[in-house]
Amino acid sequence: MLHRRIFQFLIVYLLGIGLLFGLKLALNLSDYVIPGPIGVWHTGQAEFPRYMGDVMDTFAVAVIGQALSIMMALAVGVAGRRATWFGSFIKVAAYNVQAYPIVAIAPILFILLGDGFLTRLFIAAMICYFPLLLSVIGIMSEPVADIEHFYRVTGRLRWQLEVKIRAFENLHKLTTVVSGSATLAMAGTIVAEFIAANAGIGYSIRIALYQSDLSKILVALFIIGITLSLYQGILELLGAGLKKTWASG
Amino acid sequence: MILNRYICVKQKDPKPSKLQGEFSFREKMIACHDITFRYPGAETPLFDGLDVVIDTPGFHALFGPSGVGKTTLAKIISGDIDTFSGQVNAIGDMPCLYTYNRERLPGWSPVGRHLEKTTPRGRQPLRDELIDHFGLSELMGMRFAQLSMGQCNRANLLRYLLQDFRILIMDESLANVDEPTRQAILYKIKSIFPEAGFLYISHNVVEVSRFCDQIVVFRGAHKSPQTLRVAGQDHHENQPLDKRALERSMLEIMNAA
């Protein structure tokens, strides 16, 4: 699972880099526009430690934001799973809010909260919260009739058991959704850093952009990708482990 | 929550003391009168003024080809479907349970632990007896997903038999179970629960003719009457089987259908 994730990222990254170098060769572009492989390698050697620190900074914010989103989505998703007015309200609200590009309200947060940790955290959490919420509501509001029937007709179906059955039966889906939301959280944090933050890899990429230094951007993308692949692979492993432990409980 | 599943599932007339002057509505084990039901989106109703009566407790059957409404009527009787018109009465102060053959046990614990948790207090000896008779003793440490389809159905039926019920509707509950085991299970159920009512849904004409007392044969909504009642042999273990009478029952069922 873990090695597959990393392998997939490396293929995509190398294809992308290969395409750039191909363009450079085909159009005879200067190193200023697209640097050569040696230039990228040297930039990587020079910038790797600093960029690694920046990625870890961004990653920490993204993970905390994602954890907050997961907790909120689970709580609201469980509460809103029923076909009550509250459940319907939650679903309609989530669908409508999700349709809006949340990142567009990031400037408001920067104006209100400044460009520190909290703003980045809020934006990361908001960007991955609504897709997570929709998935959790979808999973939790779908009865597993073949299992729940017995508990329902014998009067044993408490909400905790209902949630447990639905979570157990959809653990693979939940793991995939949580793993996918990691990308959203990371993207949210980087976008926040692009806009106005003063730390993180998004901030460093913004500086590299002002310098028109594609090498630095490619090095940053590599570190972001490999970190995210590792994280998603670990999340999937944890999900598989949880399922195995639960099923053998 | 179970209380509303007991007797009157739905009634147009709050005082249905007599129907058509034939019988007392409340004295029958199951009495369905003037049931009309149409699935959402269907052009024609599945039931149109259907009357079904099962007089006494015992082992009875709903029989007929696929799609004629056996499961639908079972769900109407048990209260799983309540969007019909007409009256349904089931005798007794305990629930009418409906079980079907695709039900599953949760995968997070072994079958044995699940049965322990769902066995009401004081029924452990019954549980152990049924586990033994259902041939499930060796499987108690296994997960539901590890069982064969027949084993799954036996484990599922077993947990229902441990619950409080006045009527248990078994919708193909012994599908995929081999014939000797199925026979042993049916004899056991009949001997342990003589006072309860069972509605057995099966497509096996020999089985329903042999084991069931009354067989409600479904003929489809376009025929009148929609159902016919045929007497089965209600055979018990260690009792001689009248093979000619069994054949007669089978013929009657086939003719009725």
Structural overview:
The complex is a heterodimer of chains A (about 250) and B (about 260). By secondary structure, chain A is mainly α. Chain A has one domain: Orthogonal Bundle (MetI-like fold). Chain A is about 80% helix and about 0% strand. Chain A has 10 helices and no strands. In chain A, helix 2 packs across helix 5, helix 2 (about 35-80) packs parallel to helix 10 (about 215-245) and helix 9 runs antiparallel to helix 10 (about 215-245). The two termini of chain A are about 25 Å apart. Chain B is an alpha/beta fold. Chain B has a single domain, classed as Rossmann fold (3-Layer(aba) Sandwich), CATH 3.40.50.300. Chain B is about 30% helix and about 20% strand. Chain B contains 7 helices and 11 strands. Chain B has helices at about 70-80, 110-120, 125-135, 150-160, 180-190, 205-210, 245-255; strands spanning about 20, 25, 30-35, 45-55, 60-65, 85-90, 95-100, 165-170, 195-200, 215-220, 225-230. In chain B, a hairpin with an 8-residue loop joins strand 10 (about 215-220) and strand 11. The longest helix of chain B has 14 residues, at about 180-190. The chains are: A mainly alpha (about 250), B alpha/beta (about 260). At the A-B interface, helix 6 and helix 7 of A face strand 7 and helix 4 of B.
